[in-house]
Design brief:
alpha+beta; Coagulation Factor XIII, Chain A, domain 2; Immunoglobulin-like; 4 domains; elongated; disordered N terminus
Length: 688
């Protein structure tokens, strides 16, 4: 209720009923939060003898932002009418008396989102009295067919707007990991933090009134969010860091959800939260966009190219030991994570509506600021690099060509491989209604190697490389799959020669620590060299083992190791090169919640962990988080876990929201960090 003076005694916004109908009751039932283009109901209670239905007339005013005006579209005056007009602000009197006026009100489906002041103007002969009825918060409405973010599929709406929990896919192409994430977009304070984020963007700080005039556009809002989730050139949320140390902040792999990050940014005076990497940037952006009402999903691109010079070629250089060298700023990330948001693109030529790629990770500047998108996924697939925003950059991320060079000590540089299929694999998002992986690679590009895919490459201003004569020498790297952290890695190098004569080769195998987002320069785990004689048209296999003793100290969250093999003909210097990135599998966290879980009743979760590393783990701790299950985070200290030991702990939870909720558990120790586990818990109402 909002108290007013003069003729209005109070206004009942019927928050609980309206918010339920507008699918915002999970945020709050204590204030009015509605979606644009949809009717809501209010009741105005008048002071005694202040309203005469026969003589008094009313207008309503909805206004937002500083200095609202009709010309800028931030102020709307509308009279009571006979019916709701779905295309503009309108109101209908449901009932009236000398003491009460009941109204149905609908905002424009193109209204500015954010806080609005609702004002009642009572017009009597010779006098107009204006009174503020109260504040409402207006969000995008993907359920409204006239809204630019309209999405017709109920299953997708439940997943991409209403679901507070999700899964983000990480790891590498051959071993994709599921990372649970609590988006928490309906935690009550998150909406205010998201609106605060909009008010802290540089455009608003420079000209608040002008910025508010554009807040009806999901293209504009999503671009602001893309820029504000990183802090590179504004008062953004996250500080990105990809190298040790992280002692003055939180290691990115430690985060389990967006809520703690957003709350820390809010309580810390809009100072950046330390630290984020690509999946954290994307997940926070997903939270903000879903909260504001824009359907959004998190997308992972495996073998993702970062093309710094825009030539659609990723060049890498190795020395004659197979170790990565060179000065190229281009790189291929084992995975890179961004988001897609659903919206119409009235600013572009037809055919570009639907999913739009947005990337808040600060990589390259777009129109002078660190943001990326929204880029129509359809335009990326068709190579339409003249479409805004940032289609060429994302096109390269999923479709660049790779060229590998080997450099000798004498400075000679030899091209040993060109790969047109390596970049952009298994592009993934969470399935609607389940935690399974949905492969959406075909949304971004035509099948690799197809005529159409190569034609699209030419449309993107990339000349097709001339065909090369068939190579006579090939190398293949194989490993024992799956590979568990702590076990020996068995490496097989297969040499396939089509030469008609016996040849003597030098084989060099290297194992290097690999960061998911860049090269592996400078950190060698193991080198192996052997001289091998290969008979005409013979395939020969060389096997090498890599032990935990050799690789254990080099591992980080993703346990990535880059294996390379370089084969050189001793006589002719003909070379063959291959590489393989492997990701070692961590122990599992097992979570069980027996029985039926009931709202506001204690739930006991049983958490188990087995240490199958050959060393003891110390300083072990579980960290629990879950929207609707836990307020913030809960820590359970474990201490030491010996090799082969199984530890089991119980945690007490009291659910505060109904429906399917995700409990995430993070395990940390001295030698094994950021191991994730989760369980979905169906919270029911008592008596059901």
């Amino acid at each position: 209720m909002a108290s007013t003076a003069d003729c209005v005694s109070y206004t009942d916004f019927h928050c609980e009923k309206n918010n339920q109908e507008h699918r915002t009751s999970e945020i709050s039932t204590k204030r009015l939060i509605v979606r644009r283009g949809q009717t809501f109901h209010i009741t105005v209670q008048f002071n005694r003898n202040q309203y005469n239905p026969d003589n008094d007339r009313f207008k309503l005013v909805a206004q937002t932002g500083p200095n609202p005006s009709e010309t800028s579209g931030t102020k709307f005056l509308f009279s009571l009418s006979d019916s709701i007009n779905k295309r503009r602000w309108s109101a209908v009197a449901v009932s009236s008396s000398r003491s009460r006026l009941s109204l149905n009100i609908s905002s424009s489906p193109n209204a500015k989102i954010g806080r609005h002041s609702l004002v009642l103007q009572k017009i009597t002969p010779g006098q107009t009295v204006s009174q503020v009825l109260g504040e409402i918060v207006l969000l995008f409405n993907p359920w409204c067919s006239e809204d630019e973010v309209f999405l017709s599929d109920d299953g997708q709406l439940n997943e991409y707007v209403l679901n507070e929990q999700g899964v983000i896919f990480t790891g590498c192409t051959e071993y994709i990991q599921s990372l649970p994430w609590n988006f928490g977009q309906f935690e009550e304070d998150i909406l205010d933090i998201c609106l605060k984020l909009l008010d802290n963007n540089p455009k608003h700080l420079k000209n608040p009134a002008k910025d508010c005039t554009h807040r009806n556009s999901p293209v504009y809002i999503s671009r602001i969010v893309s820029a504000m989730v990183n802090c590179n050139d504004d008062n953004g949320i996250l500080f990105g860091k990809w190298d040790d140390p992280y002692t003055d902040g939180v290691y990115p792999g430690k985060w389990n959800g967006s809520v703690a990050i957003l709350r820390q940014w809010n309580s810390g005076g809009c100072q950046p939260v330390c630290y984020g990497q690509c999946w954290v940037f994307a997940a926070v952006a997903c939270t903000v966009l879903r909260c504001l009402g824009i359907p959004t999903r998190v997308v992972t691109n495996f073998e993702s190219a970062h093309d710094t010079n825009g030539n659609l070629i990723i060049e890498s250089e190795y020395d004659d030991e197979g170790m990565e060298v060179g000065t190229s700023d281009d790189s291929i990330w084992n995975f890179h994570v961004w988001v897609e948001s659903w919206m119409a693109r009235y600013d572009l030529r037809p055919g570009n509506d639907g999913w739009q790629a947005l990337d808040p990770t600060p990589q390259e500047k777009s129109e002078g600021i660190y943001c990326c998108g929204p880029a129509p996924v359809k335009a990326i697939k068709e190579g339409e690099t003249d479409i805004c925003y940032d289609v060429p950059f994302i096109f390269a991320e999923v479709n660049a060509d790779c060229v590998t060079w080997v450099c000798s000590e004498q400075g000679k540089k030899m091209k040993v491989d060109t790969d047109t299929k390596h970049v952009g694999q298994k592009i993934s998002t969470k399935c609607v209604g389940s935690d399974e992986r949905d492969d959406i690679t075909n949304n971004y590009k035509y099948p690799e190697g197809s005529d159409r895919e190569r034609q699209i490459f030419e449309l993107a201003d990339r000349r097709r490389a001339p065909l090369k004569p068939e190579k006579q020498l090939h190398l293949y790297l194989k490993t024992n799959d799956p590979i568990y952290n702590g076990a020996n890695v068995k490496i097989s190098v297969v040499i396939s020669s089509k030469n008609s004569m016996k040849r003597v080769y030098t084989l060099k195998i290297s194992a290097m620590k690999k960061k998911y987002n860049r090269t592996s320069r400078g950190t060698c785990i193991k080198k192996y060299q052997q001289e091998i004689t290969v008979n005409p048209s013979e395939d020969k296999t060389v096997e090498v083992e890599l032990s935990y003793t050799e690789y254990g100290e080099f591992l980080d969250k993703y346990n990535l190791i880059r294996l390379t093999a370089l084969l050189t003909d001793v006589e002719t210097n003909e070379s063959a090169f291959t590489l393989k990135d492997i990701s070692l599998i961590n122990p599992n966290i097992t979570i069980q919640v027996p029985g039926v879980s009931v709202l506001f009743k204690e739930v006991m979760a049983e958490i188990s962990f087995e240490n199958f590393l050959p060393v003891a783990l110390t300083n072990c701790v579980f960290t629990l988080e879950g929207a609707g299950l836990i307020d913030g985070q809960k820590e359970i200290k474990v201490g030491k876990i010996n090799p082969g030991e199984v530890i089991t702990k119980e945690a007490s939870l009291i659910p505060k929201k109904m429906g399917l909720k995700k409990l995430t558990v993070d395990f940390d120790s001295d030698k094994l960090k950021d191991v994730k586990g989760y369980i979905n818990i169906d919270i029911q109402e008592e008596g059901i």
